[in-house]
Amino acid sequence: MENDRLNRLRAKIEKQHSDELSVDQEIAHLSLEECQKLIQELKIHQFELKTQNEELDRTTQDLELSRNKYFDLYHLSPVGYFTLDENSLIIEANLRGSRMLDADPNQMTRRVFTRFIHPDDRPGFQNLLVQLNRGKEWASCEIRLANTIKPTRYVKVTGVLFQDKAPNGRHYQLAMNDISQLKNLEKELRRAKDEAETASRAKSEFLSHMSHEFRTPLNGIIGMSEMLLDITKEKKTRNLTRLLRRSAMTLMDLVNNVLDFSRIETRKIEIIRTDFLLKETVDEAIERIRLDARKKGLNLQSKICPDVPRVVNGDPDRILQILNNLLSNGVKFTESGKVGIKVDQLHKKEKEIQLLFSVSDTGIGIAEERHEELFQSFSAFGHQSLKREGSGLGLTISKQLIEMMGGKIWLESEPDRGSTFFFTIPFHPAIQMGSETGAETDAAKKCEECYNILIAEDNPLNQQFIAYFLEKSGHRITSVTDGQAVLDALEKENYDIILMDIHMPRLNGTEATKQIRKSDAPYKEIPIIALTAYAIDGDRERFLEAGMDDYIAKPVDMNHLFSMMRKVMNDSREKERDTKKEEDEADEEILAAEDLNFSGISEFMKVFQKDEPILKRMLQGFLNEAPETLDRLNKAYAAKKFSEAADEAHSMANVAVAVRALNAVNQARDLEQAIRNDELKKAEELHRQLNRGMGSILRFIRDIPLIQKDL
Question: What is the pLDDT of residues 351-361, one digit of tens each?
Fold first, then answer.
């Protein structure tokens, strides 16, 4: 054996030696020229090898540099990046992502990503995966992270799905951005908004009360003066009564200016549209300043050009307010000469009539550089040369009102040569052209249909004034002085309508209305009109929320009151006819809402029909989380912890969206928004609907055969 091994080794050595000899022999037979050529080729080959080695070194360095750059971009990015497998297990995470989860980068792999998500927000993340699995190119959601060292951290997650050809190659790529600062800023802004709204409500409430205190005696003066005008035929007494009424109306205008300024500040002023006689409004504006003009010996003029329609559709009260402000200023700053109004038509279209109003005077005039100053709040221009009275708000309010109605205002004036204020207003053509002859209605004419009316009014003057004209029109009147007396009167007699004051002793009008609406008595649906001196925007909504059918501010315009009474009575009859129809439609709406929930859940189940374990886990997770979330929502709502209730409604939407219970998602989101907007009446109905809908959903899912197996 040993000899064989030696022989094989000897043969190998001899062969190698023979090969070398062969090469040496070949070289030996080469000529010098051939050897030089071979040496040259070897040198070239050696140089090429050296060049290739240098290129390889540079490529290796570039790759290392790229790897380092990738490391910097991926791991040191301000965005967290994650790669998840199809079971939501973490395959890879960059340094930023690990830090956002407050986890050790070396221990991130093979951990379930959803463990790092707040339990209430896990359904939202599951829905993101559902969207990607259904073919959506990318999807995102906002979630809270759980078990973090720092305070609650909010993040936005954006994901895409990659599907490789290799087995089990499907994986998710996630990008996570920290939005905690933005969320905290939103909370601060919401808190600041709530504080501002609270302050605004306090201000509005103060102005509302002050309005009531001012208006109550003024209502009495105006009402009694109208009664005197109605019953007195002696000319001198009627003239004095008219002056008394105009003075009271001027004082009322001053109160209205202060209130309107507050409304404009909060953008809560309302422009109405109705058909009215333009000449009647212009004449009323002239009459209100006639006494002051007569004291100064001023000539009052008014002209409405022939092409201006007699009846237009707009807001007569606001037009009167603007004209009154401008005319009052004209009289105030004019010592001799005239003050006048002119109305021209600029153009007329099918749906718009543009009118130009000119209010001129021959007063002290205004320097051009001070024109803009006039329209600023509390302008002191009037005090620069003469002592003047007024709030300093008239022109500011007029400008705002004109712009709200779609017009503009400007001034032409020179010192000592008078002033002319121009403003344009677009009007609509009159809806009922027949009103041209019927606009000047006698408030005391006999009514076509007479009602048995209950008046609740604690002020004797206002009570007598309203009762006087209603009785003269043929209505039957019963008067009481507080809300409790209203309830007592309703138990004794049937009434067609209630005219309810708000501010009354014992039981105010709002509380009395609430008790009427909550009762089971036959008078539960009786029409109620609020008669009140309150005049802040938002009061009407508050009265309607209490159960009143409409609202009219004092001083009461009797034509307006008669019209409103007819309207609420017609609405009441229509409501009775519609009640049964609404009850039938309500049942149909409930069934439709449940169908929307169930169809969405069915679509969700189809997505996972080939993967029953995942489907079962997600449905069971919903059955575990939904009742708990709903319970927290109900407890917070019952305790009137509305901020917590809004948060739980948000969580409820995320829970419902995980199984595509579409109607429940919409109800939960609407409930959250209603609570945050302080729309508690709307929130109450949505809360009731959500509870009813979630009950149906839970029963539906528990009856699914896949779930029934474990029950």
Answer: 889 999 999 99
